[in-house]
Amino acid sequence: MTRPLRAICVAAARPNFMKVKPVLDALEAREVETILVHTGQHYDAAMSDVFFDELGLRAPDRHLGTGSGTHAEQTARVMLAFEPLVAELEPDWVVVAGDVNSTLACSLVAAKSPARLAHVEAGLRSRDWTMPEEINRVVTDRISDLLLAPSPDGVENLVTEGTPSDRIELVGNVMIDTLLANRERALARRAAAAHGLTPGGYGLVTLHRPANVDSDAVLSGLLDALGRIASELPLVLPAHPRARANIERLGCPARLTLIDPAGYLDFISLESEARIVLTDSGGVQEETTALGVPCLTLRENTERPITIEEGTNRLVGLDPEVIVAASRQVLAEPPGPRCPALWDGNAGERIASAIISRR
Ligand code: UD1
Ligand code: UDP
Description:
- This protein has helices spanning 14-29, 49-55, 71-89, 101-111, 132-143, 152-160, 174-187, 191-194, 210-213, 216-230, 241-250, 264-273, 282-291, 306-309, 320-332, 347-357, and strands spanning 6-11, 33-38, 62-63, 93-97, 116-120, 146-149, 168-170, 203-206, 235-238, 256-259, 276-279, 295-297, 313-315.
- It is an alpha/beta fold.
- Helix 1 (14-29) crosses helix 7 (174-187).
- The longest helix is centred in the N-terminal third of the chain and has 19 residues, at 71-89.
- The radius of gyration is 20 Å and the shape is globular.
- Uridine-diphosphate-N-acetylglucosamine binds next to helix 1, helix 5 and helix 11.
């Protein structure tokens, strides 16, 4: 009897947990033997454990405990811990998601092992090489055997770069699988009310990109813009650990309420009922599009242009005047839902099919 197909699924940081859950479920439903590996890149309860609890993710089968560090330290530590695991477990596939340092580290190990490598969220490009994520994405895609793209622009980027077309599958957006599966539970949390906010009467903010929060000059400008918007509409900001100290040091404007990083259900609840979202997150650009909530992206570029072309996102950059003007414009318009094709809750199934069909 042949042994069942065996896949290691890698999770590492906050935006991975909601991506790995539907893939794991769909693979298991098809009797693939799965091993869930947590690299430990994010480790605070609010950045990791809460997602396992709320999404019903089983405890990781293996935890690499690698933690924070410089890019080289973090990447190297994950590689050192992951390599013997791959040798021991002899998976047929290693499945990585997104663009964090652990994605790159595990991809490099898998590509030099007998296992095949599948990349969930392949093909996204900001074309901004100052972003560590762009380097992680491009290298991961270049060495993957199976490129699972969330949107047609991803496929187009890969084809333009010379990726053989038989390696590419347009599967849709797996993050939206988790959003749709949990939306009702999230709405029942009424998180806005718990923070003294009125549904539809506040804005939600997230900031964590190094280019935004590690530079006092940029962060001061963003806080200035947020302060001016907050004078018209209260804002709530669940603060990523990377950002909190700098925001507090520079001074948090009145009516911009800093809270701890939100759990998944509370965050989706806050996002669903917000009048506007201002963010530099990748995943939040996608979720707001799927929810039909207007989003201003506080960056000069995005690897997710489909959220602008077919969604509710606007790229507004970092100039406080432009941000405030865009916010006023959005608040004057009625919100309207728009959602790209294949962001339909079935991306995990399509990913499992793509993997199994290449057995
Ligand atoms: C990482 C990803 C980024 C992703 C983000 C999602 C890389 C290069 N960056 O950025 O693409 O958008 O996660 O949130 O992989 N920290 C804690 N507790 C934690 C985790 C981190 O306090 O549980 C603090 C540490 O001081 C750490 C810093 O945050 O040094 C940065 O963490 P790190 O994982 O390196 O990068 P993020 O900014 O979280
Ligand atoms: N998120 C969350 N709590 C928060 C902020 C974000 O649960 O306080 C969720 C959000 O709903 C999305 C994911 O985290 O599913 C996005 O992760 P993040 O913004 O950290 O990373 P990025 O997508 O930019 O890589």
